[in-house]
Amino acid sequence: MLGDAKPPKPPHGKHYHYVDELARLQFELLKMQEWVRLQGLKVVVIFEGRDAAGKGGVIKRITECLNPRSCRVVALATPTEKERGQWYFQRYVEQLPSKGEIVLFDRSWYNRAGVEHVMGFCSKDEYKEFLRACPLFEEMLVRSGIILLKYWFSVNDEEQEKRFLERMKNPIKRWKLSPMDIESRERWVEYSKAKDVMLKHTDTKLAPWYIVDADNKKRARLNCIAHFLRQIPYKDLKPIQFELPARQPDNSYKRPKKSDQHWVPERY
């Protein structure tokens, strides 16, 4: 059962069709979003993990069916000089949801525990302070009424290499591969140690980490979305029925000539 909406029971084992099951879960996401909106809930979902672990794929499948007015993705760029001079969490606080909103962080304040620490973009003192302050910061978020979910996408070495090679050969996916991603391969062990330390300090009762086995992308998407739905006790709300009014009569309206306008050529 997903929430209180009681959708059809999910299939067992491997006897399901990926597209059909994804559509079923996306339909539940629509119900959940409407419940969040009407109840004035505030939801934050953090997606972290190895490069090419599939975070972007699951975020895309979550958002493609939802109303972007109340569900948005936050993927912040490298901090500016001004942001570097701010309290570390400040630029993330600005992105937190208002009532009725869902915010999905495609990477988050945990950059400091991962790439910034491993690549030397922050000092040792800044890193230690983050590990101390992060649980306190997240406790404040939860106690303020925010529903905070944290997902770590775990992918093995061989699968990550396979996906990197695919991105290098596929011009459509080539933009996903950055020099930083390449260097992360050379520092696999360092990133693994940093992840272990991060989990040790920030996997708390109020804000636990949920680990997603991402070696199989499609299964990871379904498992993550299904788990996400179970964390919010939404109810199935019947949509308001509208009556389509008659169109205003156009007795005095004359449409401009097509030749007076710039129409897109019909090449297909």
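(the above was protein one; protein two follows)
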Amino acid sequence: MQANLTPENGQTQANDLIKDSDTANFAKDVMEASQTVPVLVDFWAPWCGPCKQLGPMIEKVVREANGKVKLVKIDIDQNQAIAGQMGIQSIPAVIAFVGGRPIDGFMGAIPESEIKAFIEKVTANAPANPNDPAAQIEAALEQAKAAMDAGDFGSASQIYAQILQFDPQNDASIIGIATIHHKMGNEQNARDTLAKVSEEGQQSAEFKSLDSALKLGEEAAALGGSAKLEADVANDPENHQLRYDLALAYNAEGEKLKAAEHLLHIMKADREWNEDGARTKLLELFEAWGPADPATAKARRMLSGLLFR
């Protein structure tokens, strides 16, 4: 699986945001261009006083939109045919095109705040531009997730690496690579990679889930495997600490429901044990597994059944 990321020529994009056009080029500059990004058409004339007020403001707001919208300026004195076709009777007049057709507009020299609100409304209702780098990265992240879900860690890793070439601080990709390390048993690499996530990225559910999973793994590593602990619990079934340790070992081995069952057993026998430690640890497991994991849903039902019976 290969992501389709293409470099963006920032200078060309900036120069292409605002342009003068005419009747002959209207189809290319407006109809075709609006297939990928909303295009505002400003109908004006040199003798129009309000046009001179609106022009600089709308150009400023379009530049500040950073490529979310383009502006095409049409002098109606030089292009009466297209102005007539669009039904322009008073200027300044601005019409927004999306997907090759007009969708909204306004007349007169409105304040800058209203221009911003108009552009926000137009861009919010417009389909995503497939050539926009942000849209490309989003699509690539979806491809990487699909590869991860299919167990194709190699393809997922390549896609994440490709995204990071374009956006070195893409937290989703960093977490994705750390997750791959974790799933492949490279815990130290996972921890080192996760340390590169920004403070903002650390608030995400994906970061918290992996961080919890790594901490749980570290706890379990000191306990050894489940085999000896199973025997110990069989010999001393009321020893809650042994059962708690066995739950951690089961979780580390992927036996999620077994881990939950043993923690629930402790809660049923002694809710106050270790300051409600069994329930606290079970909630940590839920965070590590993630809300979409079937084990989380089933264990939550088991927990609710115990608490509210």
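Reviewer note on protein two: The chain has a mean pLDDT of 89.
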